[in-house]
Amino acid sequence: IRLWGWGDSSVGRVLALQILQECEFGQFFLAAKPGVCPKDRLLCNTSIPGSCRMDFNCEDYLKCCTFACEKKCMDPYEEPCMLPFKRGNCLTEVQRWYYDFEQHSCRAFTYSGCHGNSNNFLSPSDCMKSWSLS
């Protein structure tokens, strides 16, 4: 008599391969991408759910950094306050603030709730603090 087990079927082999890939991928997560995140310039009493948890949640060379009280994918070689505002492409409408590098002032814009960039602040005072310390 032969007893059936997971290893005896193609489903078992697929599951074993899936587990092996997840373990190998998990080890890959331990390494950080090159570059240094910009220093967070705000003292945050609360944190906002971010778009990443670690570097490898971010595309290409972007790093998962804490900036403006939330974790977000950022270019480690770019100054956030020099970026143009980016509305994003989701359906939410939230008022946020960005630093207008050409006008040297903070301005309001409507953020869609996702896929913006790091020049995105909750309040005009957060915006002012961030660029004045850069």
TrEMBL record:
Which ranges of the sequence are coiled-coil? none
Residue ranges occupied by any BPTI/Kunitz inhibitor domain in the UniProt entry: 81-129
Which GO cellular component terms are attached?
Answer: extracellular region
GO MF term set? serine-type endopeptidase inhibitor activity
Q: Does the keyword Disulfide bond apply?
A: yes
Q: Matching InterPro entries, A to Z?
A: Elafin-like_sf, Kunitz_BPTI, Kunitz_BPTI_sf, Prtase_inh_Kunz-CS, WAP_dom
Q: Which UniProt keywords apply?
A: Disulfide bond
Domain WAP residues, every copy: 30-77
Q: Report the Gene3D superfamilies cross-referenced here.
A: Elafin-like, Pancreatic trypsin inhibitor Kunitz domain
Which Pfam families does the record match to this protein?
Kunitz_BPTI (PF00014), WAP (PF00095)
The protein depicted here goes by the name WAP domain-containing protein
Query: What organism is listed for this UniProt entry?
Result: Sciurus vulgaris
**Phylogenetic lineage:** Eukaryota, Metazoa, Chordata, Craniata, Vertebrata
